[in-house]
Amino acid sequence: MNEGNGRDDFSRSTVESIAKRSGYICAYPSCKRMTVSGSNDRDSGLTMTGVAAHITAASEKGPRYDHNMSPKERASEINGIWTCQIHGKFIDDNPSRCSVEELRRWKSQHEKWVFDRVESGLELFSRGVCRLSFSKVYPFVGEFNIPVGRNNVLVGDIELGITFCQILSALSGGENWKKIKYLFDSSTRLGCFPYIELSHQSDNGTTRVKISRQNMATGRRKADNARQRVHVEVNGCPSPDWPRSLFRVLYFGNQLYRTHYTELKDTFIKALRYLANVLGTDEDLIWDSLREELFASSMFGNQFRRTGHRTVDIRVPGRDFFLPHKSLSFTEQQFAFLDIALKLVSCISRKEHWIYIFDTVFFERLDQSNKLSIFKKLTAYESGNVQTLFCLNSKVDADMLTNILTEKWVNAEQFEGLTLHSFL
Question: Going by C-beta distance under 8 Å and a sequence separation of 6 or more, which residues neighbour residue 76?
Fold first, then answer.
């Protein structure tokens, strides 16, 4: 019992245990609201909107007080249920409707629901990247082992979120590897020894690829002159390279932004150049594919008609006429780029496994209806060869998206101001 207030309150560790057993999800029937996300303003790096409610009251003045319980039992995890703030208040204000028996039944059913999803998640998700481990990749300072689902929503600090996306995409090679190589170099200069390890699951078993940094000192043995080399391991054995085909990534980020004065003013050309690089094909072939018969049907309804060397007319949904790509709004160009990328991947390498990553830079410019449209269509993919990761900074956006897939939730992982929600 807490001295001075006559209450048998939960300790901080008990609250954490109650929250984790609930998966940070409200246990009130049919609510399933996510109650944790990242925060840029709090010292903890987290926003917690859930509460550990007492099943039997913490004090004699409270509802459902049980004189037969000891103070230790009253303050234990057994006597707590995790809810959102709305239903925590509802439970306290309606003891006749929310009886001890009902609360215990709700808690038991909810924890079984969470356990079943955690237990079956890896078995049901049998193809693709199932786990990401990494250590001291700048600006991350710790070591992490993160399970990955078929569809994933990451929310929290912008810089850390984008870095996580870059780490996940690193083993696809090309431009994605160059981005993470720079962070590897930054970590090494700070005296750290970073590594990335991805586990890929398929019908043939699990393949683990680990990339780490090694310093090879020169004859003068000076750290400043050390040459940095990459050490590759596949399933624990040294390897000269790794199977990039297991980690194909389409990374939707700043392709439609002009980030440097040396870049093309026409960012649509820049975006298709990125696509050619990812698909390992010639840029001219990407442009040659922009013809009406290939895009008679597309995910978001855009149609394309090649008009010149690096020009294309596009008919967006809701219009009965074509416009030059330069005349489209930024959002219309985003959806046109998405349609081209998704169509060509489905035609060129439909048997390969792909991860579609949407970072904050790409997603934040969209309005709510467009965010929902992209999320619903990509997470409804019938193909088992596609995974998604949506990187968000807004808790409102995170709640909006995660509530769509509540029944497919399998895990919530917190690390350094980020929360990763994983779904089947």
Answer: 14
Contact yes or no for 144/134 (Cβ under 8 A): yes
180-215 burial, b if ≥16 CB within 10 A, otherwise e?
beebbeebbeeebebbbbbbbbeeeeebebbbbbee
Question: What's the rounded Cα separation, in Å, for the pair 362 and 261?
Answer: 20
Q: Output the six-digit token pair for 280.
A: 């390992």
Of 339, 357, 375, the last residue of a domain is 357
**Which residues are CB-neighbours of 9 under 8 A, at least 6 positions away?**
2, 58, 75
Q: What domain range includes position 317?
A: 256-357
Whether the ω angle into residue 243 lies within 30 degrees of 0, i.e. cis, is no
Domain-embedded: residue 223 = no
Displacement of CA 396 from its chain's centroid (Å): 15
Query: Is 80 exceeded by the pLDDT of residue 117?
Result: no
The conformation of residue 252, written as its DSSP 8-state character, comes to E
Distance between CA 2 and CA 189 in Å, rounded?
A: 49
How far apart (Å, rounded) are the C-alpha atoms in residues 48 and 35? 6
Q: Domain for residue 109, yes or no?
A: yes
Question: Going by DSSP bridges, is the β-strand pair 354-358/386-392 parallel, antiparallel, or unpaired?
Answer: parallel
Residue indicated by tokens 């310093």: 215
Distance of alpha carbon 164 from alpha carbon 137, whole angstroms: 9
Rounded Cα–Cα distance for residues 197 and 191 (Å): 20
Whole-model pTM?
0.75
> Which residue reads 């790794």 in tokens?
242
Task: Give the domain-ending residue among 357, 384, 414.
Answer: 357
Query: Position of tokens 């808790």?
Result: 395
Residue 134 lies in a domain: no
Q: Does some domain include residue 374?
A: no
What is the tally of structural domains in the chain?
A: 2
pLDDT at 119 over 70: no
What are the strands, taking DSSP E only, across 245-385? 248-252, 303-308, 311-315, 323-324, 354-358
Percent of the chain residues topping a pLDDT of 70: 92
What percentage of residues in the chain have a pLDDT greater than 90?
Answer: 46
Residue 86 CA: distances (Å) to CA of 21, 35, 53, 214, 349: 19, 11, 11, 52, 47
pLDDT tens across 240-296, in order?
A: 888 888 889 999 999 999 988 888 899 999 999 999 999 989 999 999 999 888 888
